[in-house]
Amino acid sequence: MQLNSFLKDPLAPSFELIAGQNGLNREINHVGIVDTPNFEEYLVPDQFIVTTGYLFQNHNDRLRQLIISLDKHHSSGIGIKANRHMNTIDHDIQELANQHHILMIWLLDDEPMSTTFTKINQIINATHNNELHEIVTINQQLSFINHHNTYQHLLDLSAQILDAPLMLLDSHFSALYASNALLKEREFFTSFLRTQSNIDYLNLQEKVIVTFKGKQFDILPIFSALNENKAFVAIQTPSQPLSDFQLLKRRQVINAVGLANSRTDLINETEFRNLSGFFLNIMQGDLGTEAINHYLRNINIDVQTQYAIAVLDFTTSKSIIEIRQFEILQTLTRWFINESDWPVLIFSYKQQLVLLIADVINPRIFLQNLYNFLRKQSKLEHRFTIGFSRITETIHKLNDLYEQANNALKLTSKSHPIMRFRPKSAHELLNLLPQQESRAFVEKNLGPILDNPELLQTLETYMFLHQNVTAVASAMFVHRNTINYRLKHISELLDVNLDMPDVLVDIQLAILLLN
User: Fold this and answer.
1) Cα distance between residue 378 and residue 157, in whole Å
2) 429-514 maps to which CATH number?
């Protein structure tokens, strides 16, 4: 309890104040008697000293030293029995007590010292018992409401316990929930914190105080398993310093809000892992088009949205990369995406981060911003690089785009940490064409024979063997005249001259696209 509460207790005698009234917010949890010059050895924090004054009679130097020592040991103050050995306190002693915020009072002169000592102890013990009972009650209330009610109920009860309104902030300093008195202020408070407070909330580790609309708020981190996932609680700052008991109640509230927030974290993490599992199934070819579309619709993702794929990976050998480092990379990347609401999905695959970047944003600009952000984070101890696909496709083609991004990743270096896929062959180059255009080109040049395997195989072999009819006949185990007949039939169906170079180029490209 604080000295101001102690002095207001009905059991407390009417003590006369001498000096140090600005120390009334000091805690009093013990009482002791001073009767020897070596008093400093026995001083402890939150201790209130009582004395007959005999030790200090005609020894102002000792009283000065006691005041300094009480402050040094964070003790409460001193009570001197009135009209026993002392009946006045020099002005300079009073000024010293005021300077050190050490309360000085006169104890009743008509009451035995033992009685005064006992009364003070009784007040302290009764207060401790009442506080303990209240703490147990608060714990039961918070526990019950945490399991049976909403964030709104929890914060309203917490505001009642603390006698102060409060808000719950996510890791991006957005006020998600608030007690009733602050419900209408959430949007304004969020805007103020994110645009005007200049607080590095990603790396905030301890309490900060902000002033919003003329009122001060204590903002305290609520830590999760990963600090990057931490939330915050904003509590309106009280007009007077908090007592130890009030700080304990605040800690109870923060723990209860943290428990509720951890359940939300668990739900979000489960959703993330489920989505990652879905992407892994696509990568492994375990899902058909209908199954993919059904899942995407259930989680409100447009099946027609096209994505570029990027892969983030450490450049250091996997054998010496700690799992914790990969978790930090993943969590910081997710934080960055959510911070600006980028239209990007993310999952992990073979200890790589895979990003699906919607085609409404420029993938290189996004990845450069992400890279710059991650490079500033001291928690990442290893260098990483990024490769990304050249084209965009729907999620159904995730595996193909991943191969492009992974191949691009192999081209990265310290001087070029972000690379876009570069085709190394004609096949890879043709794969960059949009599927709709590829199908249209194949249909235009090969359409009439696509349903005739014999003619299609003959034309492919003819092109592969550089239009050598004899070699084609030998490879297909038929007579040369049969090949000539088939080629004539193909020319008629396609309405082309197979001797023309430009025709052969178009057919060759169509066959490559078909395969």
Assistant:
1) 39
2) 1.10.10.2840
Hunting for tokens 């929890």 — which residue is that? 154
CB 346 within 8 A of CB 334: yes
Please tell me what DSSP assigns to residue 237: P
| Residue-range domain boundaries for the chain | 3-124, 152-263, 287-423, 429-514
Dist. CA 316–CA 309, nearest whole Å: 22
d(CA 132, CA 228): 35
pTM, to two decimals: 0.70
Written as one letter, the residue type at 450 is L
Q: Which of 132, 46, 53 is nearest to 87 (CA)?
A: 53
What are the backbone angles phi and psi of residue 339, rounded to the nearest 5°?
Answer: -60, -40
pLDDT tens per residue across span 405-453: 998 998 888 889 999 987 655 565 566 566 777 888 888 888 899 999 9
Could you write out the three-class secondary structure of 95-107?
HHHHHHCCEEEEE
Find out whether 51 and 142 touch, Cβ atoms under 8 Å.
Answer: no
Segment among 161-170, 313-322, 371-380 with least mean pLDDT: 313-322
Task: Identify which of 485, 486, 458 has the alpha carbon closest to the alpha carbon of residue 472.
Answer: 458
Quick check: 23 and 3 in contact, CB under 8 A? yes
Rounded distance between C-alpha atoms, residue 480 and residue 472, angstroms: 8
Q: How many CB atoms are located within 10 Å of the residue 512 CB?
A: 16
Residue 198 backbone class (left: φ over 0; alpha: ψ -120 to 50; beta: rest): left
Beta-strand relationship, 47-51 and 30-33: parallel
Q: Quick one: CATH architecture of 152-263?
A: 2-Layer Sandwich (3.30)
CATH dotted code for 3-124: 3.40.1390.20
Take residue 211 and report the two structure tokens written for it. 């002033």
Residue 237, amino acid: T
- Determine the CATH number of domain 287-423: 3.30.70.270
For residue range 302-351, list pLDDT tens digits in order: 999 999 999 999 887 655 557 888 888 999 999 999 999 999 999 998 88
Tell me how far apart the alpha carbons of residues 446 and 435 are, in angstroms, rounded to a whole number: 16
Q: Which range is least confidently modeled, 215-219, 220-224, 440-444?
A: 220-224
Task: Give the DSSP H/E element, type plus range, for residue 233.
Answer: strand 231-236
**Distance between CA 107 and CA 103 in Å, rounded?**
12
Query: What is the C-alpha to C-alpha distance for residues 235 and 119, in angstroms, rounded to an integer?
Result: 36
Cα–Cα distance between 84 and 80 in angstroms, integer? 9
**Kind of pairing, strands 352-358 and 307-314?**
antiparallel
CA–CA separation, 488 vs 420, rounded Å? Answer: 45
